[in-house]
Amino acid sequence: MRLEGKTTFVTGADSGIGRAIALTFAREGADVAIHAFGDRRGAEQTVHAVEAHGRRSWLVEADFSDPSAAEGLVAQVVGQLGRLDVLVNNAGRGSGGERSIELETALFVQVLNVDLVAPFVLMREAAAHMVERGGGSIVNISSVHERIPHKGDAAYGAAKAGLGMVTKTLALELAGHNVRVNNIGPGMIATPMTNDVLMDKAKSEEALASIPMQRPGEPQEMANVALFLASDEASYVTGSTFYADGGLMQRAGLA
What we know:
By secondary structure, the protein is α/β, with parallel strands linked by helices. It has a single domain, classed as 3-Layer(aba) Sandwich (Rossmann fold), CATH 3.40.50.720. It is built from eight helices and seven strands. The protein is globular, with a radius of gyration of 17 Å.
């Protein structure tokens, strides 16, 4: 098992990509701390599924729209599970709407807090613990929209682009301490967040037409990449973004 004996912390693990990562880590031998907000039942289901694999789990709820809610969470995980070897920043939200210029300032800031500021706080605290322990891995779930603009999503795109640069910067700073920091950039993934699009025939056809593989990805496919980056198999990988998008980033070549 690739994560045997390790302790991990996955944010936004009540459903979708976060849940798939948490369960994959548990199957690979890791104890998993679970963060969630707004879906207590889903979070508890993830906890029970982790424990069904014979691993320890612990649930914490926090609203990252106030990034101070992320302060001290790493210390709580360490207090409950004894250590932290892998952090996965998966929790996130979009801004919605059709036109970014109509987005209210408060919502723009809220998206930045959830998708960028809170993840930075967790990275900062996790890095301090990992440096002290002699190493670790941080995996951020970004998006193809750190590179590809999307109408109505200026806040989301700005946050994900910022997360990409924070990843590179911290990777540079922490490389000498054996702490690796990497990004996963999913394309369209079949999760509750994209359900409205995928269930609408016209919207689904339009979205899938831009994907060379002509299908949405599955949460497990993102979890497989996260497992690689979290494990010692990626021991020489840091500061990189791995786009798992069915070829979406390459669509310019189809023009």
